[in-house]
Amino acid sequence: MTLPLTAIYPHVFQPITVGSITLKNRIQFSPIVSRHADPYTGTCTNDLVEFLGAQARSGAGLVTIGSSPIDYDRARDFYGCLSVVRESDVASLSVLAEEVHRYGAKLSIELTHAGAVSDPALLAGPAFAPSVIPGIHNPSTTKEIDRVEMDEVKQHWVDCVRRVKRAGFDMAMIHGAHMNLFASFLTPLLNRRTDDYGGNPENRMRFPLEVLKACREEAGPDFGLELRISGDERVPGGVTLEERIAFLNAAAPYIDMVIVSTGGFLFPETAAYMMAGYHFPHLLNVETAAEIKKGIGLPVSVVGGITTIDEAEQILAAGKADIVAMAKALIADQDLVTKAKAGRADDIRPCLRCLECAYGGLTGTPLRCSVNPQAGREVKYREIPLARRKKRVLVIGGGPAGMTAARTACERGHEVTLWEKSERLGGRLYEATALPQKDTARAYVDWAIRSTMKCGATVVLGKEATPAAVEAEAPDAVIVAVGAAFARPPIDGIDLPQVMTVSEADLGTKPVGRNVVVCGGGLSGSECAAGLGMAGKKVTVVDILPEEALCQDAVDLVRVAIFSLLRDKGIQRVQGTVEAITTTGVLVALAGGATVELPADTVVVAFGLRPNPAVVGPLLDVVAESYLVGDCRNVGKIFTANHDAFNVAVEV
Which residues pair with 106 in a beta bridge? Predict the structure, then answer.
């Protein structure tokens, strides 16, 4: 007897009833602001419709639109968020509901009042807070909300529930997490009021419960309400787990499910937990969600550091949550759930947890993904177009850019050959993913190689490209993706035996001593230092730039996590110029003018990569249609390599 496909992940594909709504499976596309709405008016766009369609096509049972303000003048926290504040919004909202429903998914929306975590530039007046607290709030841009304003805010929530219900949505999520206005009333850290809405837990619950009660009265019995909370605010003085459970039990008559997140916007270290990057553990909030589930009688969804369908099955099978919410993984592979259901989990493209999808919230830059160049660009690239004329395409280089170029060109119907001068594909991905916390990136390397080997391209390993070899191959088009080499500035002592590259340190190909100086505090140098610190080494990082100017190529939440990790491991920073490397250490000219020697038995040089025009130039001169992609064109990240290669290959 053949088992049904759903038996592969039996808990994931078990339907669940939430309130009056039945979800086809236990996967929720968790809210993320894709910045596809008009950045000034919040008006729905075709890009947003197609992005929501892609979320539903992923196979998720519940799709939740990201943070949408209940008041566009006083509650907004992102450019490019969706407007639900006008009656005229209902028509375009109905198009979103129609698009999601045609794939069998249910649709919800995160309704937010950002409160004091708003960007003042987005507001028409001071931000609202339960209390204005010196040292936490800026009194010039923050106002203690009064009773009349509280009633207005409550009515805004009610009005937005009414609009999305009219538009055909199935649910609405009340955003009560991340230190926004709703959450701030609950936490003693942020609520110092002396009226009936502050002080003891019952008073601090009062306004949030009034909001939920009013929303339920508007929603009626057939429209779902979910509540997002931070199970752990991760700051001293935050809400305790016991108090959180007590609040949820008080809220239970008004809501149908709870989604457990963590952290909050007001403090950089806690903000980094909200959307956990690769420096954080997997399954970040699962144990907290399990405790909440034990204490309440509502379905519990959990989000945070859940990257694979296997992790989702593990959580559900253990009974630690009823629903698993993911966003980044479902963006990295927009067919994740459907592939899993079909028994094709090995084909799922892994998420890096790099948080590039979160970049742009303060500018309205539309969402993009490091490993999926089609994500966020569904209007133009929902399907990769077939080439109008089949060509013989030669790809030179088997790193991330070369592999993406080969896969894309094959998908377009071209005859593709890929040359890689080493004996394996992957390029610098091996060293870039060597640190312990980059397990998801290593999974991506495996996927990229596996997918490239079976994409239909002829892969030739151990083949070095020369102009003569390219001419003999006689391709119609050439894509050069040969990468870049480590920069080695002319510093005295750089060739001493105790000096190694950041790659050698990360891969462990050379022994590292007890005292280490890392020369270069950019992303690769800082991450290498963090890895060495985690291994128990005493590490000092030297860079000519101050800390605030370093790692600017990383997403802000990743920078915060890296710098926090460096501090936790006691890693020192020195601002200055490396003048020489000696047998006993590193001579550094400090920013103030003095020169010091930093003692070291190992020196790691992390001065970045540099393209070599002398290598790539001749390869471009053989065939008229030749392109340069990846690090050999412009040194960057996996994101830039993949997008660079895709943008070329999709047009060849």
Answer: 62
Distance CA 442, CA 446 (A): 6
Contact 524, 551 (CB under 8 A): no
DSSP H stretches of helix in 221-364: 241-251, 268-274, 286-295, 309-317, 328-332, 336-341
529: Cα separation from own chain's centroid:
23
Q: What is the C-alpha separation between 260 and 253, in angstroms, rounded?
A: 18
Give one word for 4, left, alpha or beta, with left for phi > 0 and alpha for psi -120 to 50: beta
> For residue 183, how far is the Cα from the chain centroid?
23
pLDDT in tens, 499-551: 999 999 999 999 999 999 999 999 999 999 999 999 999 999 999 999 999 99
pLDDT tens digits, 226-238:
999 999 999 999 9
The secondary structure of 526-576, three-state, reads HHHHHHHHHCCCEEEEEECCCHHHCCCCCCHHHHHHHHHHHHHCCCEEEEE
Question: At 451, which helix (H) or strand (E)?
Answer: helix 439-453
Integer Cα distance of 257 and 225 in angstroms: 7
The pLDDT tens digits of the residues spanning 329-344 come to 999 999 999 999 999 9
* DSSP bridge pairs for 416: 393
Interatomic CA distance for residues 184 and 128, integer angstroms = 10
**Whether pTM exceeds 0.85:** yes
Do 50 and 379 meet the contact criterion of CB atoms below 8 Å apart?
Answer: yes
Amino acid in the structure at residue 456: G
Backbone dihedral region of 298: left (phi > 0), alpha (psi from -120 to 50 degrees) or beta? Answer: beta
Nearest to 280 by CA among 542, 571, 582, 561: 561
Q: Are 224 and 19 a contacting pair, CB within 8 Å?
A: yes
Tell me how many helices (H) and strands (E) the chain has. Answer: 21, 26
Both structure tokens of 69: 């303000």
Residue 2 has pLDDT above 50, yes or no: no
Instruction: Say how many Å lie between the first and final Cα of the chain, rounded.
Output: 48
Which residue carries 């009414």 as its tokens? 162
Nearest alpha carbon to residue 408 among 648, 629, 51, 58 = 648
pLDDT at 147: 96
SS (H, E, C) 67-87: EEECCCCCCCCCCCCCCCCCC
Residue 610 token pair: 């540099």
| Rounded-to-5 percentages of helix, strand, coil across the chain | 35, 20, 45
Ramachandran angles phi, psi of 338, nearest 5°: -65, -35
Query: Considering only CA atoms, which of 650, 492, 522 is closest in space to residue 586?
Result: 492
When the pLDDT of each residue in the chain is averaged and rounded to a whole number, the result is 95
Question: Quick one: tokens of 132?
Answer: 């204005």
Mean pLDDT over 303-323 rounds to 98
In SS3 terms, 623-644 reads as: CCCEEECHHHCCCCCHHHHHHH
Dihedral Cα 450, 452, 458, 463, nearest 10 deg: -90
Q: E-assigned strands of 335-437?
A: 392-396, 415-420
Tokens standing for residue 597? 């020697």
Place of tokens 């110092």: 192
